[in-house]
């Protein structure tokens, strides 16, 4: 079974559509770890419904998350472990798809391919079964992800996705997530389909 870590942002939305095309028996998993931008969890549910993929939302606790704001060191390490055991709980074929992209890999050590490969090896040992971690966007810029969304028919899902690190009514347009998104659509020559 393939578990897609669905944050509700545009990258994981595109990763979900990639998984739907390339993997079998896909489920989406969203994790509420106390993030400030709870809005993305609402988006995650809507995206999974749009993609017609079973969706689960679970609470986990990273007790210091509220103190850290948007960036939580090691967050991906936590999430991948939960996702792999979630996949294992459903079926012993154990795959995880994560929307880590080029910008994430540059910014966060636990979004780099070396770590993902190592984590897959560790989880395979820990679970006693082969664990595969796929990161289909790991070499893609935001603009390339926008183009891939077109190819995968994920445009509707992009209109539902939420990137802003703040939990307002509308994206703030100024946080790093908003700026990456704006720049990505601009570079791709597309208009962001997001709507309230
Ligand atoms: Zn923002």
Q: What's the number of helices?
A: 9
Rg result: 15 Å
pLDDT < 50 runs, ≥5 residues: none
Major sheet characteristics? 5 strands, parallel
Beta-strand portion reads 5-15%
Tell me what you see in this structure:
The chain contains 9 helices and 5 strands, in the order βαβαβααβααβααα. It has 196 residues and is an alpha/beta fold. It has a 5-stranded parallel β-sheet. Helix 1 runs parallel beside helix 2, helix 1 crosses helix 7 and helix 7 packs across helix 9. The protein is globular and about 45 Å long. The site of zinc ion has 9 residues, from helix 9.
Features:
single chain, 196 residues, alpha/beta, five-stranded parallel β-sheet, 5 strands, binds zinc ion
Brief write-up:
With 196 residues, this protein is α/β, with parallel strands linked by helices. Helix content is 49%, strand content 12%.
């Amino acid at each position: 079974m393939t578990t897609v870590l669905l944050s509700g942002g545009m990258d994981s939305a595109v990763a979900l559509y990639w998984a739907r095309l390339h993997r079998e028996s896909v489920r989406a998993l969203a994790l509420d770890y106390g993030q400030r931008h709870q809005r993305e969890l609402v988006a995650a549910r809507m995206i999974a419904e749009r993609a017609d993929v079973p969706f689960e939302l679970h609470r986990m606790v990273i007790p210091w998350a509220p103190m850290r704001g948007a960036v939580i060191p090691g967050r991906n390490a936590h999430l991948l472990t939960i996702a792999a055991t979630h996949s294992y709980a459903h079926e012993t074929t154990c795959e995880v798809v994560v929307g880590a992209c080029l910008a994430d890999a540059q910014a966060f050590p636990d979004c780099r391919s070396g770590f993902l490969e190592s984590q897959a090896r560790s989880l395979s040992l820990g679970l006693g079964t082969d664990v595969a971690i796929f990161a289909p966007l790991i070499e893609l810029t935001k603009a390339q992800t926008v183009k891939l969304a077109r190819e995968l028919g994920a445009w509707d899902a992009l209109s539902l996705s939420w990137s802003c690190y703040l939990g307002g009514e509308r994206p703030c347009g100024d946080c790093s997530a908003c700026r990456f998104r704006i720049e990505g659509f601009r570079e791709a020559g597309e208009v962001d389909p997001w709507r309230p």
